[in-house]
Design goal:
Number of helices of chain B: 18
Number of strands of chain A: 7
Helix content of chain A: 25-40%
CATH topology of one domain in chain B: Flavocytochrome C3, Chain A, domain 1
CATH class of the largest domain in chain A: Mainly Alpha
CATH superfamily of one domain in chain B: Succinate dehydrogenase/fumarate reductase flavoprotein, catalytic domain
Oligomer: heterodimer
Largest interface: A-B, 81 and 84 residues
CATH superfamily of the largest domain in chain A: Alpha-helical ferredoxin
CATH architecture of one domain in chain B: Alpha-Beta Complex
Number of domains of chain A: 2
Order of helices and strands of chain A: EEHEEEEEHHHHHHH
Distance between the termini of chain A: 64 Å
Strand order of the largest sheet of chain B: 5-2-1-9-17
Radius of gyration of chain B: 25 Å
Largest sheet of chain B: 5 strands, parallel
Structural class of chain B: alpha+beta
CATH topology of the largest domain in chain A: Fumarate Reductase Iron-sulfur Protein, Chain B, domain 2
Shape of chain A: elongated
CATH architecture of the largest domain in chain A: Orthogonal Bundle
Shape of chain B: globular
Strand order of the largest sheet of chain A: 2-1-5-3-4
Strand content of chain A: 5-15%
Structural class of chain A: alpha+beta
Chain lengths: ~250, ~675
Amino acid sequence: MSGNMNLTLKVWRQKNAKATGKLETYKVADISPDMSFLEMFDVLNEQLITKGDEPIAFDHDCREGICGMCSMYINGRAHGPKSAITTCQLHMRSFKDGDTIVVEPWRAAAFPVIKDLTVDRSAFDRIISKGGFISVNTGNAQDANCLPIPKTDADASFEAAACIGCGACVATCKNSSAMLFVSAKISQLALLPQGQVERISRAKNMVAQMDDEGFGNCTNTGACEVECPKGISLENIARMNREFFVANIKE
Amino acid sequence: MSKLDSKIPEGSLEQKWSKYRSTVALVNPANKRSLEIIVVGSGLAGASAASSLAEMGYKVKVLCFQDSARRAHSIAAQGGINAAKNYQNDGDSTYRLFYDTIKGGDYRAREANVYRLAEVSANIIDQCVAQGVPLAREYGGMLSNRSFGGTQVQRTFYAAGQTGQQLLLGAYSALQRQVGLGNVQMLARHEMLEVVTIEGKARGIIARDLVTGKLERHFGHAVLLCTGGYGNVFFLSTNAMGSNVTAAWKAHKKGAFFGNPCYTQIHPTCIPVSGDHQSKLTLMSESLRNDGRIWVPKKKEDAEAIKAGKKKATDIAEEDRDYYLERRYPAFGNLVPRDVASRAAKERCDAGYGVNKTGEAVYLDFASNMKYKYGKQEAIKKGIANPTEKQLHELGKEVVKEKYGNLFDMYKQITGEDPYEVPMMIYPAVHYTMGGLWVDYNLMTTVPGLYALGEANFSDHGANRLGASALMQGLADGYFVIPYTIGAYLSKEISVKAIPTSHPAFEEAENNVKELINKFFAIKGTKSVDHFHKRLGKIMWDKCGMARNEAGLKQAISEIQQLQKDFWTDVRVPGSADEFNPELEKAARVADFLELGELMCLDALHRKESCGGHFREESQETEGEQQGEAKRDDANFMYVGAWEFKGQNSFELHKEELKYDVIKVSQRSYK
C-alpha cells in the first residue's frame, strides 16, 4: 500500500569510475513511512525504468543490517540520520513529507566509485589477507573445550568481531582512515589465546597494507565510532596502536 | 532401472565414513599443484571448501557475485549451529543428532549422509574455535549451548544472535589467508552464467565480470557449486536480495539432476508483510519461541476489531485468547517444528482470526514470561515481596533485553512498535530450501566433476530442516567432506593437462551466454524485471507455498508458462551489456527462477503425499487424534525425486529409493 510522503532526492550519478559525476534531482511521491530507505529507492528505480531512464546503481544484499553491503551517505551522514543502523535498516518514518534528501556514495580515495552509489571496497579484503586470521589449517584443531577462555575476553572479542566491514568508518572520517575497521579485527584476535602466536606479524602486516591502500591516519575525532552501525568502540584503535607499537619494539 | 547411483559405501552405518575416508583414493602433493578447482559461491560451504582445498595444495579459484566473499548470505544466520559434543552431559551423541535430523526431515533423507554429518559436527566446533571464532562461553571459560526446536538436548553453539556472521567470518579469514598466500584466486563481483562440459565432464565455467560486463572463460578440473538456496523464487523471502538459483539452474540444464525441488521451508516467525512495496522479509529467530506464546483472538469479532484498528492486543482478555499451538500440541506447545507451526498459523489466519490489516499475522507474546517467569525470579533475587504487575514487567524486561535485545531492536526498527510493551506480530515466510542439486555420497552431481555443497544440494535435511542445522551442513560439506571425497574423482584426472579455454566447448558456452544477454536487450519491453518476479512470487506463494493441492498446482504451472512468455516479450532491461548493470543481473536470475518455479510445481504435483515442508491438502489424517495433520505415504513416496532436464518445459523424473536400515520409520507426532 502506498503512503502519503512526497520527497525530493538529490542523488549522485556517475556512469563509471572514470566519468565525472554530479547530483541529479528526482521526485518520488506516495511514499509510505513503513518503507525502508532502500525500498524507497526501489520505487524510484521502478519509476526510472518505466520512463526509459537508467536506474540508480547501489550496493545492497541482505537488507537486514548484517552483510555490510549497503553504503549510502545520506544528508551528510554515513547510513543516514539515525545511529547504530545500516542504510537498509533506515525507514522512511525517519523523514518528513516534503523533505529533500541528498544521497552520495562513500567518499574515500581507497574506495573508488564503480557507478553511481556503488564503490569498490576490495581494499578491506586485501588488508584481511595480510593477517586478519589465525593460521590454522582444516583438521589441525584440538577439542574446543581444551582451551578455556574467560567469558569477559570472549565477549570483548565478540564485540570487536561484530564489525560488518561496510566502510562507514572510512566514509565518515575526514582523513578517510580505516583504523576502526583494521583495529576491530586486530582486537578480536589479540583478545583471544588463539591469536597470540601471530600477534606481532599481524599488527605490522595489516597496518602496512592499510597504509599501502591509501587510507588516511587517525586524528582521534571519533566520528567513526559515532557512525558505526555495530557500535565498534574507539578503544580498539587504542589497542591497535599498542599492538603496533609493541610489534615495532620487538622487531 | 534408476540412473542414480548414490555411491554409499558398504559396511555398518557407524563405519561407513571412517572406513571410506581412510580408503578413498588420494592425490599426491605434486599432482595437486597442477589440479585446478573452481568454487562458485563464498558462503559457509564455498569459503570452507576453498580454503581447505587450497591448504591441501590444489589451485583454487573462487567466484562470488557480491563485492566481497564476506557478504555471502550465510552471514545472516542468527540462532546457532548444532554439534554432537555432549558438553552439557545431557545424553547427546552422534547417533542422537543423526536420529533427530532424520526424524525432523520426516524420513526423506539418506541415512549414510546424515550419519556422516552428525559425526563431523563436533570437528566443526573445534575448527571454528581454533580460527578465533568468538562463540558464547560460560563463566568457567567453557563453551555455552542453547536449545533449539525438534530436540531434547542442548547442542546448539552460538554467538549471540549472529552465529552465521561469526562462522562465516572465520571461514572468510581462512579463505583470505589462502588468497594472501597466492593459493586462491578470488574473483568478487563475478557471476557464473554457464557450465562448460567436455566429453561429459565439467571442465569449467563462463562468468561475467559484473563491473566491466566482460565474459570470462575459466577452466577447472572440477567445479564446486556452493551457491545457496532458491527461496527467492517466491520474491519475498528471508534470503538476501541477490540470492539466486542461476548457477544451480545452469548446471541442471547441462545435465545435473535437481532433487526434491518442492521441499521448501516456511519459517513460522517472520515479520509480516506490511505493503506492496516490501522487498524482503525479516526473520525473528526461532529461539524467541522459547519465551513467547503464540496466539490469536478466540472470537472473530475481536479479530475484526483489531483489523479495523478499533482494538489492540492488550484489550483482549486472557480468556478470549486462543493459544492455538498449546491447544493443538499440548506436548510440544510453542516449540513444535517449523513446518507444523507455520501451517497452524496459516490455518488460523485463513479461518479469519489474523490480527493485522492484511489478516495475515498472529501474536508472539512475551508478556507472560516477562512478568511471571523472569519478573518473579528477579523479584525473589532482589528480595521484593509482593511486587506489583508493573514492577514484574520492568524486572522481567531487563532479562528479556539481555537474551533477545538485538532481535527486539530489529523488530522495532522495522515495524515502529515496541515489542517489550505490545506483542510482536509474526507470520510464516519462505526461509530455506531443502531441495537442490542431486548429489551422491561424494557430493558429486550427475555431471562428473561437478559438485554441489551446502544449501545448493538436496541432501541431509530430507523434507524439513531442523533449526541450527544449515550452518552445520554447510561447514561439514566444505571443511570435512569434500576435501576427502574429491580425491575419488581427481585421482583419476592427474594426467589431464589444463585445457586451453580456446577449446570449442568454451567458445560455444560463451556464445550461448552472449546470445542470452543480447536477447534481454533486444526485447525492449515495458515492464521491469521486478514486475515479473513479483508476479511469479505471488503464484508460487499462493499455490506452491504452505499448502498445495492438485488443482492449484496445475493452474500454477499454466500461469507460470504464460508468465514466461510475457517475460520474454515484455521485459525491459535498461543500459548495456558492457558495464555495471544490476538490472541485467536481475533479469538473468529471474529468467531462471521462472523455469525453476515450474519444476517446483511439477514436483509438488507428483508428490501426492504430505511430508515435512510439503503439505498436500489431499493428504491429511482424517480421523483420530492426528486429524488434520500431514499424512505421509511411505508405500508410494519413500524416494528422492530427481528431475532431469529434457529441453524447454520438459523434465523427466528419476527416483532414488530411500532405505532405512537403522532407524525405524514412524509418524512424527508432537501432540
